[in-house]
Amino acid sequence: MSDVKKVVLAYSGGLDTSVILEWLKDTYGCEVVTFTADLGQGEELEPARAKAQSLGVKEIFIEDLREEFVRDFVFPMFRANAIYEGEYLLGTSIARPLIAKRQVEIARQTGADAVSHGATGKGNDQVRFELGYYGLEPGIKVIAPWREWDLLSREKLLAYAEKRGIPIEGKKKGGSPYSMDANLLHISYEGGILEDPWAEAEEDMWRWTVNPEQAPDKPTYIELGFQQGDCVSIDGETMAPAALLARLNKLGGDNGIGRLDVVENRYVGMKSRGCYETPGGTILLKAHRGIESITLDREAGHLKDELMPRYAKLIYNGYWFSPERLAMQALIDQTQQVVNGVVRLKLYKGAVSVVGRKSETNSLFDARIATFEDDAGAYNQKDAEGFIKLNALRLKVAAALKRK
């Protein structure tokens, strides 16, 4: 395995990736470069630097990617109103292509000939990472330790860590029994009692949202401003993408919005039960559909809705850099040129409702035509008769044939 001289490892500083770091050196005899991304997971990342240094790593990259994450990945996805299997807002899925992209860039910068990740051979993330790598650097070598080694239990990982002198912090008393992944869009929970799809998630599992039953008795009203399909302001205050999503997370969490318990179909073939908190994203999706309802042409909107499930599946399965996703994105972004205006929302005990929408420049709502009062000739109701008869013609012909 001496063909690998240097590898860029997606590194968290936890047990798995610290063992991977040493295993790469043991198995491949290579130099390891570590890369840790701040996507808004809310954890202190400097300990990862100290850990990597203690393990002899010379090139350490710890980067704040929050703005790029929301601006270039989350927002384009929300222009499509993307939801996987009718419920999941793709919080983990959309983070992986950015990490893969930056790993490849660091590999080029440092002269590395391989990249590595800590995703297991059972999950979706291995696919997402590696499709990203190959889509950007087709000749890159990918090392996936979970598909190569025999350290397939926590006990074996701990034994390896002890043998190699890897410092492992003990699990905090009262720490979460779940496997969790967080970024600015969401936090996910898997494992523990969640592996029984009949068992209700424990209340103390949730981190970002209050119990909807305990949320304030008075509703919160907010106004979100949109420009070309992207949210740019809250209550008239213009904000950068990352700060805006963080604010929506706080508003949604305080009102118990964004909890989800779902059994989903993984790309690798199995069903998996997970729980998610996506407070800001839940608000954003509702608001975006609200402003589209008044600004977007009917058939353009319906076309987007038809494409959305396939677009969402592409992101879930890891095809962010594929030509078909890019083609769909170009179409979606074209429709968003007119999606400008303000949406008023009501946040109350786990629910978010659109209660008002307006657009000074792009509203297609014409009160003169839609009114139930006298429209002063703006709409000729007699025109509907011919319209109905033409559309009923094929039904009449088929019905007549049945009667014969």
Molecular structure report:
The protein folds into 3 domains: 6-65 and 94-164, Rossmann fold, CATH 3.40.50; 179-296 and 339-358, Argininosuccinate synthetase, chain A, domain 2 (Alpha-Beta Complex), CATH 3.90.1260.10; 367-403. Helix content is 41%, strand content 19%. The protein has 12 helices and 14 strands. A hairpin with a 2-residue loop joins β13 and β14 (351-358). α7 (241-254) crosses α8 (279-295). The radius of gyration is 25 Å and the shape is elongated. The protein starts with 5 loop residues before the first strand and ends with a helix. 35% of the residues are buried. The model has no long low-confidence stretch (mean pLDDT 95).
CATH topology of the largest domain: Argininosuccinate synthetase, chain A, domain 2
Count every helix, treating DSSP H or I runs of 4 or more residues as helices: 12
Radius of gyration, CA atoms, in whole angstroms: 25 Å
- Give the overall form: elongated
Helix percent reads: 40-55%
Q: Using the 3D structure, state the CATH architecture of the largest domain.
A: Alpha-Beta Complex
Order of helices and strands: EHEHEHHEHEHEEEEEHEEHHHEEHH
Query: What is the CATH level 1 assignment of the largest domain?
Result: Alpha Beta
> Low-confidence parts lasting 5 or more residues at pLDDT below 50?
none
Biggest sheet statistics: 5 strands, parallel
- What structural class do helix, strand and pairing data support? alpha/beta
Look at the structure and name the CATH superfamily of the largest domain: Argininosuccinate synthetase, chain A, domain 2
